[in-house]
TrEMBL record:
Any GO molecular function: ADP binding
Organism: Polymorphospora rubra
Domain NB-ARC: 37-153
Pfam families: NB-ARC, TPR_10, TPR_12
Domain of life (superkingdom): Bacteria
TM regions (residue ranges): none
Name of the protein this chain belongs to: NB-ARC domain-containing protein
Amino acid sequence: MPQLADCFQTRDAVKVLTEVTTDGGTAVLTSAGTQLLSGMGGVGKTQLAVHLADHLRSAGRLDLLVWISATSRGAILAGYAQAGVELSVPGADDIDTEQDAARFHAWLTSTDRRWLIVLDDLTRTGDLQGLWPPPNPSGRTVVTTRLRGSALRGAGRHLVPIGTFTKDEATHYVHTRLNGKPALADDVSGLVENLGRLPLALAQATAFMIDEGVPCSRYRQRFADRRSRLDDLVPDPDGPTGLPDDYHRTVAATMSLSIETAERSRPAGLARPLLELASVLDPAGIPISVFTTTAALNWLTYRRSLTTDASGDLDAELAKSGLQCLHRLNLITIDAKIVSMHGLVQRATRELCSGEHIADLAWAAADALTETWPKIERDTAHAQRLRSNTTSVQEHGQDALLQPETHPLLSVAFNSLGTSGNPAGAVAAFEELLTVQLRVFGPDHPDTLVTRSNLAYWRGEAGDPAGAVAAFEELLTDHLRVLGPDHPNTLATRNNLAYWRGEAGDPAGAATAFEELLTDQVRVLGPDHPNTLATRANLAYWRGEAGDPAGAATAFEELLTDQVRVLGPDHPNTLATRANLAYWRGKAGDPAGAATAFEELLTDHLRVFGPEHPDTLATRNNLASLRGDAGDPAGAATATEELLTDQLRVLGPEHPNTLITRNNLASLRGDAGDPAGAATATEELLTDRIRVLGPDHPNTLATRANLAYWRGEAGDPAGAATAFEELLTDHLRVFGPEHPDTLATRANLAYWRGDAGDPAGAATATEELLTDQLRVLGPEHPNTLITRNNLASLRGDAGDPAGAATAFEELLTDHLRVLGPDHPNTLITRSNLAYWRGEAGDPAGAATAFEELLTDQLRVLGPEHPNTLATRNNLAYWRGEAGDPAGAATATEELLTDQLRVLGPDHPNTLATRANLAYWRGKAGDPAGAATAFEELLTDQLRVLGPEHPNTLVTRNNLAYWRESSSEPQVG
């Protein structure tokens, strides 16, 4: 029997083993079920059996121990026979081994002596046919084996899975082994993970470290060095100290023995090629589909033909049979269509291969991964697993994947990484690839140029659109020189350059560039080429961004017809066009129609992509946002919360789309009447965006804008103005003065300055902004029209209501021409015009205008849209101002009933309506009722808005006024 190892590590398996052998059962130390890499050579099965034997002997519970190396049936028979002779079993005469073994086996049944039979390292289950120790209350049996499977099961047998050490067990073991030499234990956790927590490897590594005085960190460096072999990292078996703990084989020899055993198994000649292919892939999980690709089967067929006489091509079923054989031998583990393999088994396998063979293996594995990679990544976990396998192939193949050309797997994997929500990771991967390509191929090689294109694209996606523009401009110069103007890659670079110009703040320039590109693509590629159709999509999009949402919607509608004909209705590009069409319909003034279109699209996305695909999740996001635009912020918030839950699960908390959804949810909370909650949520989001994206990323800057806005809406207009002022400084630095976001920040800054009590200064700033917008965006851009709206309102706030009314009248004419009569912005302009007419001294005219507007809003927006409810409020107000306070009070009371139902009691608009109702009650002759209503309102505003909110302060003032008017005594 072997000796118990120095520093034997107590494990959970010790308790299990003791329990299952208590009543005379047979414990088979192996691997079963889904334990990862359990039962392989070196996990400590023999040591557990030694520990059990020592425990039983020291406890006085053992009369007889028989230890047999069960590597063959002959060895088992010889061990039984020898035991029979030494025990003087009747009839055992040391003449006939089989007869002596049979007599010993029979004796085990009847003896009352307490025995333990250990059959160590069973190689074939068939070797124990008729030789399993018999059941006996006095007897116990332990079998250690690298096998697993149903053949080991039977009456009275208990399969005890033995895996590698747990992390805590491995760490404790290494610290114990290195006790007294703390300088060597400088990176125990790293050592433990490098060696896969394999007991045999840890024992031999720590012995080597002690003998050589090598600390963990240096041992890890040697382990990572590909020039080092496993045998170079353990004590010399023939040296003065030998191997620790009475081991007879090194880690490498142990693994090689398992591989040799596998080679003798059926299907013939397949074990080693499968192990070799797996050895360059991810040890933590290889999709079984990789081994059944045409590329893998061709490779396996070729390798098998070199060592066997097998003829014909392999099929998928034979490959799976080979994998099952390796699984039974514990060289791999198959669980739910995933193959895992201990890293040391992989390394031992690779060390049996030449460098040239490793290069060929890497290329073959890359072929298989490329073939199995789905065109549509419906399963994010599967895509991540494929990327991890790509990393392993790169690691082991090194420059092999660039000979004679760059393997397409690299671009597929790196683009997948960016698409998964890690554009910065894609940038780093393509930068590293470009460095190697420049060394191997030079700057003008087609592969190098393709990588430069990918790198530029992901730079833009990582938040540097200006850097992307610069990179694509340089690339275009080289493409024109190397490939010529009509090469597809040159045209593609022009496409990318135009796109990132738009993203960098020049949508009109982007639209112009796409228009020029489209002409050349139609000439070179033809009108139905996918790239030509893609350019039409880009042109339509940037037309919309340049201020023509209706034109964008029309262009997408025309494109959709052609894409359905050329690509089919379920092609990703066709579905993307449907999404764009719905989006621009909403922007063109039809949010309800856009929501319907997104609902229909979501059904198709679920069918084509599945529920977890980023495009499906994006469609749910768009649908939720449009519900808010259509007047249902509460329903939109609920849908967005559900979406966020799914995105956190599928994409993770730091994915850009997850962060976007958090932004939308915060805004919807504000729209639903909780601006303070929106500000808090946006503040939390800003912290995460700064950490994940960096302070200058466009989305981070947009979050700062949202935070400033919601602070203002929550009652701090001065704080909002200060925040927008600080943001403007950064926008000018990052984007420049003419970027749309910079102009939008100037607009917001002016607005909140006015709201904070400086309408004249706000008007001046807005006039300056309008001059720049007319020059940069043009007179018909939606943002230019919005600024004219703001300027008109500021004129009124500064004391010129008649001038405001005139400005709104002029603006309405342009809105009707540019946007149409039913566009939400046109309807808002009519509302503003009516309001300022009233403020200019025509309350009756204002009431009439609001009455006409209400009719159209009921038709276009519906009765429960916030804007429709706001118009009812305005209509009631101007009726009162026109001389009918009682009618105003009645109308306001009816409105309040609907707002309580639609918006809820704490919505700012509901609270404002209660203030109006109290006011009109007073004006209608009930000052005491007005005072009571304002008192009740103040209680709720203090709770909802806080004591310093402007509306709370106004209510205090009104309460005092109406108390005085009703001759009530002042209180507090």
